[in-house]
Design a protein that fits this description.
Length: about 130
């Protein structure tokens, strides 16, 4: 007998695994590795004032992150929007030498089926808001 997983649990686990990988790559730091977790058409709103789209712009953002910055992410809520997409909200604290920056991160991720990404999932929309 098998039991089906509750969609919210599955979404939470999937988003948690994706954000764990994002955190590991961000903390390494590996801007190129971090950007590889995003789709080609990803919409990205970080802490800088202007949103950007696409890998080159997101890479430029990550290259400007102050040296020594580390992130700790924890999923607060996740949902299964469809068979191939999930969304959610995470708490992230960016630790910098001059203080911590707590934020909320909303994410939409899509299943791409591509190897080399956490379960074939990639970030399509990333939006940070200071808390």
């Amino acid at each position: 007998m098998t039991t089906a997983q509750h969609p919210a649990t599955t979404a939470t686990q999937t988003l948690g695994a994706l954000l764990d990988e994002w955190q590991a790559r961000f903390n390494r730091p590996s801007p190129e590795g971090t950007v590889a977790l995003f789709t080609e058409d990803a919409l990205f709103q970080g802490l800088f004032p202007d949103p950007v789209t696409g890998p080159e712009a997101i890479l430029g953002y990550y290259r400007k992150v102050p040296e020594g910055t580390r992130a700790v992410a924890r999923v607060l809520h996740a949902y299964q929007g469809g068979e191939d997409w999930i969304g959610g909200l995470a708490q992230v604290v960016f630790h910098q030498h001059d203080g911590d920056i707590p934020v909320r991160l909303s994410v939409v991720a899509v299943r791409t089926g591509e190897d080399g990404h956490e379960g074939g999932w990639r970030i399509r929309q990333y939006h940070v808001s200071r808390v």
